[in-house]
Design brief:
Elements: E1 2-4, E2 7-9, H1 12-19, E3 25-29, E4 32-38, E5 44-48, E6 55-58, H2 60-67, H3 77-84, E7 90-92, H4 95-107, H5 115-131, H6 134-148, E8 150-153, E9 162-168, E10 178-185, E11 190-198, H7 203-213, E12 221-222, H8 224-240
Antiparallel strand pairs: 1-2, 3-4, 4-5, 5-6, 6-7, 8-9, 9-10, 10-11, 11-12
């Protein structure tokens, strides 16, 4: 959704694809594309697929009158008032409608996951490591980081091709505290994890991390073990919630 020449513009093709995934019934009446969801009695929530993207709480016949009246209907003063002013039935329009649709769609998703789901993600990560596919490895990280709320860190002591990630914790005094440092070397595709809490301001910890990357000390987990550990964390997090 955007603007063209100062007027609202909706990508109707993409919007139609999205609406077809919802529980709304598509009705074509006059020159209108309506997406209808029953509310109570004869009242429905009706979205009109046009550039303003209005959502009405009324009947299909009422929307047809207001949005695409025929000439006979305009001889009625009562109808003219409805055609000129829809404030009594409009629930939202424009970006507000888009936000409401998105919220309702996300609320209907089943975001739970099982041990089998985690095993499948670990298997994908293991395959990425075996194939030495940086795209597969990154994709596996993205899934787990989204589930666990891990974020990228800048540690300063690492080489440019080595990336660091960790879970965020509450600050301790003025120092930021994180948990479970993950190190990913994009050149060698080495994946390491150092368990436990840490602070990026801790010189000993940074030296240990650097030695692990260089193979002079041993991280707690490496390779596919890292993804197995993350899968366990994700299951623990879901149980706690």
């Amino acid at each position: 959704m955007g603007e063209k020449a100062g007027q609202p513009y909706l990508n109707k093709k993409r919007m139609k694809e999205f609406l077809e995934l919802t529980d709304r019934e598509h009705i074509r009446i006059r020159d209108l594309d309506l997406y209808v969801r029953p509310l109570e009695n004869e009242i429905s929530e009706i979205l009109v697929l046009d550039n303003e993207l209005p959502i009405y709480h009324t009947t299909v016949a009422d929307v047809a009158l207001r949005k695409s009246p025929i000439w006979k209907e305009m001889f009625s003063i009562r109808n003219l008032k409805k055609i000129l002013n829809d404030r009594d039935v409009v629930a939202s329009r424009g970006r507000e409608s888009l936000t409401n649709l998105h919220t309702a769609a996300v609320a209907g998703l089943d975001l739970s996951y099982t041990r089998e789901d985690m095993d499948a993600l670990v298997a994908e990560a293991r395959l990425g490591l075996k194939q030495q596919s940086i795209d597969r490895i990154r994709e596996s990280f993205d899934f787990f980081f989204e589930l666990l709320g891990f974020q990228a860190l800048s540690l300063g002591v690492l080489e440019q091709d080595v990336h660091a990630f960790a879970g965020s914790k509450a600050n301790v005094g003025e120092a930021e505290s994180f948990i479970h440092l993950i190190l990913f070397d994009e050149r060698s595709l080495k994946v390491l994890l150092i368990k436990g809490d840490f602070s990026p301001d801790n010189d000993w910890f940074l030296a240990h991390a650097l030695l692990c990357v260089n193979g002079k000390e041993t991280a707690d987990f490496q390779g596919a073990e890292v993804f197995e550990f993350l899968a366990g964390l994700a299951l623990e997090k879901q149980s706690a919630e």
